[in-house]
Design a protein that fits this description.
heterodimer, A: 329 residues, mainly beta, Immunoglobulin-like, 2 domains, 5-stranded antiparallel sheet, elongated, B: 135 residues, alpha+beta, 5-stranded mixed sheet, 7 strands, signal (chain B), PARMER_03128_N (chain A)
Chain lengths: 329, 135
């Protein structure tokens, strides 16, 4: 055999190796690890607002032959609000994609910053949901969580989550406003007053909601500060001494998830308010549509806010608004 | 054999040198291509509010002879914070450039924008007249 042919013989094993390398390995069921294990995910997205929950899913498991789970608990670095709880159901997802809960223990008990569930069923694997309701004490601070599980064989595991920054801002949802009724909006109080209540505290009235159907122009649903030019407050009788000039800048396509509760995964956070500059904005916003919004800064410079128009109704001359508010001073 | 390689190498070198010495297409001070087009006009005009929605009540009147743009905006439009948008003929550019919000509130002194043709030889200054819808 000529030598020049011999020098190509190395190609044959190379091809064989390549073929062997491309074969798929046969699937084998994974072997469960020994001992008690745990894992945790945070399910809530967006800013952490005081009064709202942060939801976690805490999973724990042990091989059935090695013991069962006897308890699970969560310790927060700042005690949660009284509504805080650890669900005593373990969930599985059924064929329709729905989460179905199975009770595995007693209802949770809060002891200071610790929330605990004692298991009452023989359980070797469970995923419990934890809802930490953010207390006022946590505003502007960071919170950490330590999840713990204990098994009947004396093993314990823990999982640390956080730190999570709690927003400084406030939120008020679904404030009904109506033309010539509860139309005087106070950012300081996050509410809409009628003329009687507004007269009692005119210095707190930042905006007036009004609806007008005026020929040749598009006025419709509007938010106008008491100090605005009278042409933007047609037929409005203001409470005496209500004269604040609030800066307001219209926004479209900013359906904050917390306020709108729609499909859009957009969140307004503290940073948005901190960076906001509407210093040369007008003191009125005419022709606001449903799902529109407006950035607002109060005349005293104390608050910045985002007002979202959840619903508008031309017939009843009313709207439903939701507000996120950030305190500057 | 080596002689042929040398000749081929020299030919390649000459070709690269020739390409490198070819004059590039001219560009202006903004790095934009200067072309042969002498057309110079605004084909469309738009005004957006802070919510990036149009504030125009209808199609603006663009007079390419008088070089004027007449636009009517909704009642209550905040004239101090508007984003103008010009559509220009191919290869033309605008001076001054629009880099953000523009204040159109001084209705007695309408804003002026100059359109510069693709060959950068023709300049036409358009005046934007804004009127506000009234009840």
């Amino acid at each position: 055999m000529p030598v020049k042919h011999l020098k190509y013989t190395w190609l044959l094993p190379a091809f064989l190796l390549m073929m062997a390398a491309c074969k798929d390995d046969k699937y084998a069921l994974p072997t469960a690890k020994n001992g008690l294990h745990n894992d945790c995910i945070k399910r809530t997205l967006g800013p952490n607002l005081v009064g709202q929950p942060i939801e976690f899913a805490y999973a724990m498991a042990i091989l059935p032959g090695q013991g069962k789970i006897v308890s699970a608990q969560v310790e927060a670095s700042i005690a949660g609000a009284p509504q805080t709880w650890l669900q005593n159901n373990s969930f599985y997802t059924n064929g329709s994609g729905d989460d179905v809960g199975i009770p595995v223990g007693d209802p949770s008990v809060n002891e200071g910053a610790v929330t605990k569930v004692n298991f009452t069923k023989d359980t070797s694997a469970a995923t419990l949901r934890y809802y930490y309701y953010i207390p006022e004490a946590a505003r502007g601070k960071t919170v950490r969580f330590t999840f713990n599980a204990k098994s009947s064989n004396g093993e314990t595991v823990s999982y640390a989550m956080g730190p999570y920054t709690i927003s400084k801002m406030d939120m008020k949802l679904d404030i009904p406003v109506k033309d010539a009724a509860n139309c005087f909006i106070s950012i300081a109080d996050l509410t809409a007053y009628n003329s009687t209540d507004a007269a009692a505290s005119p210095d707190k009235i930042d905006l007036v909601y009004l609806y007008r159907s005026i020929p040749n122009i598009s006025f419709n649903h509007s938010l106008v500060s008491p100090g605005a030019d009278k042409q933007y407050l047609p037929g409005v009788s203001l409470p005496p001494n209500a004269n604040r000039s609030t800066k307001i800048s219209k926004v479209w396509n900013l359906q904050d998830f917390n306020l709108a509760r729609l499909k859009y995964g957009v969140y307004i956070d503290d940073l948005d308010f901190e960076k906001l500059n509407i210093s040369n904005a007008p003191n009125y916003a005419i022709n606001m549509k449903e799902e529109a919004g407006a950035w607002v800064e109060t005349a005293d410079g104390k608050y910045r806010a985002y007002i979202f128009m959840n619903k508008v109704n031309n017939g009843s001359k009313s709207a439903v608004i939701s507000i996120k508010r950030y305190t500057l001073k | 054999m080596q002689k042929y390689f040398s000749i081929a190498g020299l030919l390649l070198l000459a070709a690269f040198t020739w390409i490198a010495c070819t004059k590039e297409n001219p560009v202006d001070e903004d790095g934009l291509l200067i072309t042969t087009r002498a057309e110079c006009y605004v084909s469309n005009f738009e005004l957006l509010g802070t919510d990036f929605q149009t504030v125009l009540t209808g199609t603006p009147q663009i007079d390419t002879t008088a070089c004027t743009i007449k636009a009517k905006v909704f009642f209550g439009t905040d004239l101090t914070n508007l984003y103008p948008q010009f559509s220009l003929v191919t290869d033309a550019k605008l001076d001054p450039k629009i880099t953000g919000k523009v204040n159109f509130s001084d209705l007695d002194h309408p804003k002026q924008y100059t359109v510069i043709s693709g060959n950068r030889q023709v300049r036409k200054t358009y005046t934007v007249y804004i009127t506000v819808q009234q009840p």
